[in-house]
Write a structure and sequence with these properties.
Number of helices: 7
Helix content: 10-25%
Structural class: alpha+beta
Distance between the termini: 128 Å
Number of strands: 23
Order of helices and strands: HHEEEEEEEEEEEEEHEEHEEEHEEEHHEE
Largest sheet: 7 strands, antiparallel
Radius of gyration: 54 Å
Length: about 425
């Protein structure tokens, strides 16, 4: 029987650890294989005199002795590079999007549409030529209107004696010299037929002037009353002299002419009408005349002028009472105002009508316009920017309600989720459109 041999377990060459020297040799072989092709011949053939020589050994330093073979793995190197590029591009795209979102595509634009509205005004001004300052000075002109109106009267059935004097309006002219002439109340004017009328207030007639070589007499309007009662003083348009200047050089230089007819003269029996009924009838006539003035003056006013009711437009009304009605004959010198100057004074734009405003004189001699005018406001973008800065966007309509001329408003916001206007007014773009 054979003795049992001591058999050691076989080791695979894969499990045998290599020394540092051998590891370097393996690395050298791997590198040499990547740079050159060697024919698989046996070692014995290398000693023969052939065209193929053995590869020159590659020496490496100790620092280079360890090589990561995975870097040369064709299955993993390229995909990793591609993934890095893709991720880099994606990150840059996200950054660019966020920058555009928060810095480029950011802003607020507000568009408003304005139009005529009833605007409250209260402003002072002076008449041009009455002050040394041009500040708030308004030029005026005169528009002459005439009208008549009737109202029925209900008599009590009895008659009464009635004596009334005719009335009318005359224009007194000064073609004598360049000096003004004062005339007292009750100054007489006389027709060619000898009818005498007296001025109802004191007036001053301006002196004559010369424009472009043409002499223009000074003039003033005044209401006159017949010297006696009776229908004979109800006359058509006439020329008058001033008896007080008779026998002087001024007699030919001063004269008067009527504006419209004279009426109201009566002497006789009329149906008895109560005073209260007569007063009510006259009040209705005044309302009719004022309505006529407002309508006619607005239509007849030349371009660039504006009619405003008030102290400077007072009609001269003559009442003629008949048996069953009362007639009002009115002569109106309507004061018209320079439209651009009034717009400048009141701070509004494009006034359409000022019929609901009035002009009154103040104690210092200046005038005040107050009430409402139909016009557009002068709205500047800076006003809107200041109003909206830092406010809630949903409150846009209520915020702008302080301007009655704003008919429509809308806000365009970027980004869309912003809830408030920027705190810096200058960053809010405002576009103003007109109806």
């Amino acid at each position: 029987m054979e003795p049992i041999k001591d058999i050691s377990p076989r080791r695979s060459i894969r499990n045998v650890p290599l020394s540092e020297k051998n590891q370097n040799k393996v690395s050298e072989e791997v590198l040499s294989k990547t740079t050159a092709k060697v024919s698989p011949r046996s070692s014995s053939n290398l000693n023969k005199n052939t065209d193929i020589q053995a590869p020159t050994p590659i020496t490496t330093s100790k620092a280079e002795s360890t090589i990561d073979i995975s870097k040369f793995d064709p299955l993993t190197a390229e995909p990793r590079k591609h993934m890095l590029v893709i991720w880099g591009v994606a990150i840059l795209a996200v950054c660019a999007f966020l920058y555009a979102l928060f810095f480029i595509f950011v802003g607020v634009e507000v568009k408003i549409t304005t139009g005529p509205a009833e605007i409250q005004v209260a402003s002072n001004f002076v008449l041009a030529g009455t002050s040394t300052s041009d500040t708030n000075a308004v030029q005026t002109s005169i528009l002459s209107l005439d009208t008549t109106a009737n109202e029925p009267l209900v008599a009590t059935g009895t008659l009464k004696k009635v004596d009334t004097k005719a009335q009318g309006t005359v224009v007194i002219y000064n073609n004598f010299d360049t000096n003004s002439q004062a005339l007292v109340t009750n100054t007489r004017v006389e027709t060619s037929k000898g009818l005498i009328y007296r001025t109802m207030k004191a007036v001053t007639v301006p002196g004559k002037t010369t424009k472009s070589g043409k002499v223009i007499p000074g003039s003033v309007e005044v209401q006159v009353l017949a010297d006696n009662v009776g229908e004979s003083y109800n006359i058509d348009m006439s020329d008058f002299t001033i008896p007080g200047f008779k026998g002087t050089a001024k007699f030919d230089g001063f004269y008067a002419r009527s504006k419209g007819t004279f009426s109201g003269g009566f002497s006789g029996m009329k149906a008895n009408v109560s005073e209260s009924a007569l007063t009510e009838a006259k009040s209705r006539l005044v309302t009719k005349i004022n309505t006529y003035i407002a309508k006619e003056a607005s239509v007849s006013a030349p371009e660039g002028t504006l009619y405003i009711p008030g102290e400077l437009t007072n009609p001269t009304i003559i009442y003629t009472q008949g048996t069953s009605s009362i007639t009002a004959t009115a002569h109106i010198s309507v004061t018209l105002y320079d439209k651009n100057a009034i717009e400048q004074v009141t701070g509004v734009d494009s006034i359409i009508s000022a019929n609901n405003a009035t002009v009154g004189q103040k104690d210092d001699g200046s005038y005040e316009i107050s009430g409402t005018v139909t016009a557009s406001e002068k709205i500047q973008p800076a006003q809107i920017q200041t109003l909206l800065a830092g406010k809630q966007i949903t409150d846009l309509t209520s915020i702008l309600s302080v301007h009655p001329s704003i008919k429509k408003s809308e806000a365009h916001v970027k980004p869309f989720w912003k809830k408030t206007f920027p705190t810096d007014p200058k960053t809010i773009k405002v576009t103003i459109l007109r109806e």
